[in-house]
Amino acid sequence: MNLESIPVQITQAGTAMPDAMLLEIAALLRQLTEKKIAGSIDLHGLPMSDEDRNCLQERLGRGEVSAHIEVNGLTEVWETAYTGVWWIRHQNRDNRIIAEEISVTQVPEILVSPKEDIGAAAKRLTAETDEEARHV
């Protein structure tokens, strides 16, 4: 989908917040495309009603990629129907939303493996395969 196809219309119910958010997301997509600079919008701090949030979620849709991360509660990450636009929702152990954002990037930082963890995994796997080779 191209940027111009993001549906912007003032809704009858709720506020104009979803429309404003879509315009901001389109601007962030242009920034990512033209300047290679990612951006995000903190939804948790905005004066959005549940109706606004649901409307925005419906209008952005769901794409093909999603992930669930279980660390001190559930974090859900999904790409919307617009490539590069990710919805990220963090919940605590009581399933209460504690943070929520729209991230406009190629891959959300939360899904990128830290180099230190990759190095530790390489050492661990090498040690395990060395141990197995000694027993063969």
Overall description:
With 136 residues, this protein is of the alpha+beta class. It has a single domain, classed as 2-Layer Sandwich (Ribosomal Protein S8, Chain: A, domain 1). It has 3 helices and 5 strands, in the order αβαββββα. It has helices spanning 17-35, 50-60, 115-134; strands at residues 39-42, 66-70, 74-79, 85-91, 97-104. The radius of gyration is 19 Å and the shape is elongated. It starts with 16 loop residues before the first helix and ends with a helix. 18% of the residues are buried. The model is unreliable at 8-12 (pLDDT under 50).
Short description:
The protein has 3 helices and 5 strands. It has 136 residues and is of the alpha+beta class. It has one domain (3-111): HupH hydrogenase expression protein, C-terminal domain (Ribosomal Protein S8, Chain: A, domain 1, 2-Layer Sandwich).
Write the SSE topology.
Elements: H1 17-35, E1 39-42, H2 50-60, E2 66-70, E3 74-79, E4 85-91, E5 97-104, H3 115-134
Antiparallel strand pairs: 1-5, 2-3, 3-4, 4-5
Helix pairs in contact: 1-2
Radius of gyration, whole Å: 19 Å
Strand order of the largest sheet: 1-5-4-3-2
SSE string, helices as H and strands as E: HEHEEEEH
Query: How would you sum up the global shape?
Result: elongated
Helix vs. strand class:
alpha+beta
Quick one: how many beta strands? 5
Strand content: 15-25%
CATH topology: Ribosomal Protein S8, Chain: A, domain 1
Mean pLDDT: 90
Sheet with the most strands, sense and barrel status:
5 strands, antiparallel
Distance between the termini: 55 Å
The CATH homology group name:
HupH hydrogenase expression protein, C-terminal domain
CATH architecture: 2-Layer Sandwich
* Spans where pLDDT lies below 50 across 5 or more residues: 8-12
Percent in helix: 25-40%
Q: Please identify the top-level CATH class.
A: Alpha Beta
Give the number of helices.
3
Question: Could you say how many structural domains there are in total?
Answer: 1
